[in-house]
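Appendix B. Chain record.
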Amino acid sequence: MTLPPARTAALPFPDGFLWGASTAAHQIEGNNVNSDWWRKEHDPAAKIQEPSLDACDSYHRWEQDMDLLAELGFTDYRFSVEWARIEPARGHFSQAEIAHYRRMVEGALARGLRPMVTLHHFTIPQWFEDLGGFTADGAVELFARYVEECAPIIADGVSHVCTINEPNMVAVMAGLAKRGEQGFPPAGLPFPDEETTHAMIAAHHAAVRAVRSINPEIQVGWTVANQVYQALPGAEDVTAAYRAPREDVFIEAARGDDWIGVQSYTRTKIGVDGPVPAPDDAERTLTQWEYYPQAVGYALRHTAELVGPGVPLIVTENGMATADEDRRIAYYAGALDAVAACIEDGIDIRGYLAWSALDNYEWGTYKATFGLISVAPGTFERTAKPAAHWLGGLGRERVLPRL
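Structure tokens predicted for this chain:
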């Protein structure tokens, strides 16, 4: 394996910089039987490729996952708590599940990993979906109540809480469902549901208030999926209009938060007639996205410009689905070079968390391997990949590779 050459300059990352990897409960835990996604996975009409089933069995093996991350050199671990486990029936909160997630927080701290806890990462309880989801009457209050019930999990030892992961994607999926559509266009995103957009923003603001009432020292924010819309000549106004409902309104809603999470993987070019697919000869990842590690730099610069001063940025997801470790390492090297350049230009960036800690369930398939750590089907044996050693070691050495 050929590693990128290193430059002698130290990383520009400040003291306390978050250096870790991210996961999501439904994608790694397994047997999340009370969630909306579990029901969808087992509904033939939904045409899901394969169900999550045991996933990575991280519900039982979370200690192994944290041990590996700590041994590799990471200092931070972002994971989510599962609403459908904590409140499997409306108004009935499982103290056993709350205690389970509290053990995870304490386990992370014991291993020298700072936990970032996400409260909503795409999945909701089936009973909440049956009410109508986030656009139902009283939904915001129900979400805020759930957040309040998470107090024993996050009150002590958790410095960063994410209220909602990628609310713009939640609104996009809601728009597809309302229109009775399936699948995404060749480039760009479907139009998000406007009612869901407003509901997600209201739920976020209510959750922020709830978290601050639990412990005002917690740094609270949310994450936005950034598509890196790049205007082709003459398409600047088209690009701005296209991006506004799919991304910008969610970034603007973070003004006043303690931080905002930037999640980026590739770019989307916009012409005068809308999104333009990448050329046929472009290198693609296993998700069929264009290989474009520089995307995160564009995403950070756009987010910083839009959210304004006073709101630090954290890269909460970034990575590549591939079976080629040379290309995965090259992707991370290019991405981190872009992050470092942003910091050197004065953008306030407080952390970088890779997606994903594990090869996991990518919403319908296990084929899209983003993980730093592989998980063997059947035995669940964990094996750190070369990129995991490289990225973890980079955090210790604090020397940034240059391509």
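Further analysis of this model is presented in Appendix C.
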